[in-house]
Amino acid sequence: MIKRFAAVAALSFLGLAGCGPSEPATSGAPVGAQRLSATQYRQMISDVFGPDIKLGGRFEPGIRKNGLLAVGASAVSMSSAGFEQYDIIARTVAGQVVDAKHRDLLIPCKPADVKKPDPKCGTEVLTKYGRLLFRRPPTEKELAGPIAIANQAAEAKDDFYAGLSYGLAELLDSPNFIFRKDIAEPDPSDKTKLRLTAYSKASRLSFFLWNAGPDEELLKAAAAGDLDSKSGLSKQVDRMLASPRLESGVRAFFIDFLDFDQFDSLAKDATIYPVFGQKVAHDAQEQTLRTAIDLLVTQKGDYRDLFTTRKTFLTRNLGVVYQVPVASESAWEPHEFAADDPHAGILTQLSFTELHSHPGRSSSTLRGKAVREILLCQVVPSPPANVNFTVVQDTNNPNFKTARDRLTAHRTEATCAGCHKIMDPIGLGLENFDGVGQFRSTENGAAIDPSGEIDGIKFSDSASLGHAIHDNPSATACLSNSLYRYAAGRDFDPGERDWQKYLGEQFAASGYKLPDLMKTIATSDAFYAVRASGNAVREAQR
């Protein structure tokens, strides 16, 4: 009887008995804006105008804040040089939209005279694309400028379509397109509080789940007020989670979460690692993303199994590094490593081992630091400015043949011991993989010892390290916290501690299934909650 009561209590705590615990109230955060990422920008152009529209120019890089580019996107500004690049892209895109190849498909009306302005047709076109680009219906004031520019340019150039391209470029240059701007309105149930408009909810939801702007159905749901009800919101979330486009959203999260933007500058010493190349680096990222999508989205598996799974996908380029035969010359093939193979989980994949290494050697310290900071969301202090790394960097020292030997000698310095103590015992478990991730059993003729320890748990090799991460509660807490911060584009507010705890409990109750966690966030009140700052309520009432 006592055991049965304890089991029921545990189920109740995890939300599996009855209706489960209710979502704790949160005050939210002030409204803000996030700059579109390069991927989001490209996807929106493809969705609105078609996949064959090409972009010119380049994007300013984002900034990573507390581990995530999505959080940093709320803090970025735009330099004059950056705006020039956006303007180049805008004019390139607009020119293609109105050219002879695309105008019959993309322009919904015909001008009365192609050599003169046509305010009616121009307004129709700019209103249509303003709604799609701004992710909401544009106001008359917001359209007035682009319409005037289109008419003036058409008059000056004796060409309706040339003038229209200037108007379209003005929309593409607008902060209402380049930034995802939240808009608040007075809450009808309490005029002293604010809520996000339905269109802001739609935008927040679509960029989270699909890494793209709202589709037509979501915009219509916003216009009808469906997103302001629990049932209407849940219906759209279920639809979006069932869509193939969910894969794009999950990919975007893991690219950010796993710091894959670092691949843009990854370099290796070609003399030491002739097997490395940009194709290998590209395929290494794709391998991990495919592994994650298959396990978490297709199979709806346990997130923790990412650290232990032996199932993955390989190309021939990767097969050379992994020393595994791959039949196809260009296609991806599913592969499962044997039970006694050292490759188990994403920590042993090239995307982790080569990314967190030096150009000419592996690094137990960098790998241990990455586990702590990226996968466990823990802070590792920066090394003192006067640290001497000579012993660690000298891989030819006959007295210290392995990385373990060199790091042990390095830790004799008092200023180094504290930080290395929390990093090196983790990274040493991956020392069987060199600077590009190739397996090796010796270094300089000496046997490599891959044993180590993490948070009091000892492991013997890379596979058992994966199991230790699998069972570490910080790993799942890190994922749930990071996913919410990624979705909201900000860090947790001090008033959201109960919500943060609740989110972790719901993740556990689902069996650590990522789509369920995404649904918990997407249907929550917390995800859309905003609070007034200064005169925000009064401004929203105007």
Question: Could you give a short description of this structure?
Answer:
The chain is mainly α.
Shape descriptor: globular
The radius of gyration is 27 Å
* Biggest β-sheet description: 2 strands, antiparallel
Beta strand count: 10
Compute the separation of the termini in Å: 62 Å
The total of helices stands at 25
| Helix/strand/pairing category | mainly alpha
Summarize this structure as a short list of keywords or feature phrases:
542 residues, mainly alpha, two-stranded antiparallel ribbon, 25 helices, 10 strands, 6% strand, disordered N terminus, disordered C terminus
Write a structural description.
Among the domains are: 146 residues, no CATH class; 197 residues, no CATH class. It is mainly alpha-helical and 542 residues long. A hairpin with a 2-residue loop joins strand 3 and strand 4. The strands form five sheets. A two-stranded antiparallel sheet has the order 1-2. The protein has a two-stranded antiparallel sheet with strand order 3-4. The protein has a two-stranded antiparallel sheet with strand order 5-6.
Q: What is the topology?
A:
Layout (H helix, E strand, L loop, with lengths): L1 H13 L18 E3 L2 H12 L19 H4 L7 H18 L5 H4 L12 H16 L5 H18 L2 H14 L1 H4 E3 L2 E4 L2 E7 L1 H12 L6 H8 L6 H12 L4 H12 L20 H21 L12 E4 L1 H7 L10 E4 L13 H4 L10 H12 L14 H4 L9 H8 L3 H14 L14 E2 L2 E2 L4 E3 L2 E3 L2 H9 L2 H16 L8 H13 L4 H9 L13 H6 L1
Helix pairs in contact: 4-8, 6-7, 6-8, 7-8, 10-11, 12-24, 13-14, 17-20, 22-23
